[in-house]
Amino acid sequence: MKSKRYAAIVCAALLPTTVYAESAVLSFSEDWSHDLTFYLFLPTSTDGTSTVAGQSVPIDLDFSDALDLLDFGISGRYEAWQGDFGIIVDANYLDLGHTQTIPIGMGNATADVDVTQYWIGLLGAYRVLGGTDAAGRKRSFDLSAGVRYNSLKQTVAISGGPGPGANLGGTEAWWEPVIGARYAWQINDRWTGGASIDAGGFGVNGDDLQWSATLGADYSLGDRGSIKLGLRYYSIDYSTTRSDGEFAYDVDQFGPFIGYTLSF
Q: For 76-93, what is each residue's pLDDT tens digit?
C-alpha cells in the first residue's frame, strides 16, 4: 500500500503543471507586471465625412472597401502594473490611399487621395476596485487619465489635366486630454473578459470628441502569451481651418479586432 502511495506522489511530481498567462491588470502583484499587445482593428463599417479645402466627401465603406483602400495599419498597447497603480501607452497607425481618374474636358486628370492617421497616448491608471468573487475568480475596475498626441493627414493631389494641377489639404497635429475606464474579470483559468471605454478631445485644439468602446476576451496560450479578440467602436470628430479652407474628419467605425499579448 505504501509503495502505491509513494508511486502516486512521484507521478504527480513528474507531471507538468500548466501555468497560464495572466494579464497585468489582474496580477495584483506588488512587483511590476507587464503586457505588450499588438492587434489589428478590422472595421466592417466606416461612415462619416472627410473635408479637404472646404470640400466635403461622404465616406461609406464596408469591410472589403476598407481592405481595398488600406495601405497599412497596426495598433499596439503597453501596460505596466504594480499594486493598484498602472501605466498605459496606447498607439495606433492607419494609412489609406486611393487613386481615381477624373474626366476633364477632352482629357483626364488623376486624383491621388491619401489619409494617414496616428496617435500615441500616455496614461496613468488606478485600480478603484479589485479582488475575487465567491468562486475565487479575479476582477478589477480601473480608471485612467493622461494625454494623447494625434496626427491627421488628408491630401488630394490632382495632376495630368489641362491645368497646372493642385495639391490640397495637409497634416494637422494636436494634443488632447484623454480619460478611460475598464472592467476586467477572470472567466476561468484560460479565459478573461474585458470592457473598456475612453474619450478625449472635449473641444481642445479643434478636436470636438474622440472616443472608443471595446468588449473583448483573452485566451491564454501558456505562461507568457494570449490571443485577444473582440469588438470595437471608434469615433472621431475633428475640424479646423487651414489656409485653403476647412479641414475636417468626422468618422465612425465598428468591427472586430484580433491581437496577441505577451505578458512578462
A: 999 999 999 999 999 999
- At CB < 8 A and 24+ separation, what contacts does 158-167 make? 158/102, 158/109, 158/110, 158/111, 159/109, 159/110, 159/112, 160/107, 160/108, 160/109, 160/110, 161/102, 161/104, 161/105, 161/107, 161/108, 161/109, 162/104, 162/105, 162/107, 165/109
Amino acid identity, position 248: A
Calculate the CA 37 to chain-centre distance: 10
**Other C-beta atoms within 10 Å of 215: how many?**
13
pLDDT tens track for 99-118: 777 676 666 777 788 899 99
Q: Would the pLDDT of 7 be above 60?
A: no
Q: In degrees, to the nearest 5, what angle opens at C-alpha 76 toward C-alphas 116 and 179?
A: 90
- Domains in the chain: ranges and CATH: 22-263 (2.40.128.100)
106: left (phi over 0), alpha (psi -120 to 50) or beta: alpha
Q: Grid coordinates representing 235?
A: 469615433
In 133-244, DSSP assigns E strands to 138-159, 166-186, 191-200, 207-220, 225-242
- In this structure, the dihedral spanned by the alpha carbons of residues 56, 60, 61 and 65, taken in order and rounded to 10 degrees, is -70
Provide the pLDDT confidence category of residue 165 given band limits of 50, 70 and 90: confident
Q: How confident is the model at residue 206 (pLDDT cuts 50, 70, 90)?
A: confident
| Burial of 199 per CB tally in 10 Å (0-12, 13-18, 19+) | middle
pLDDT at residue 8, rounded to an integer = 38
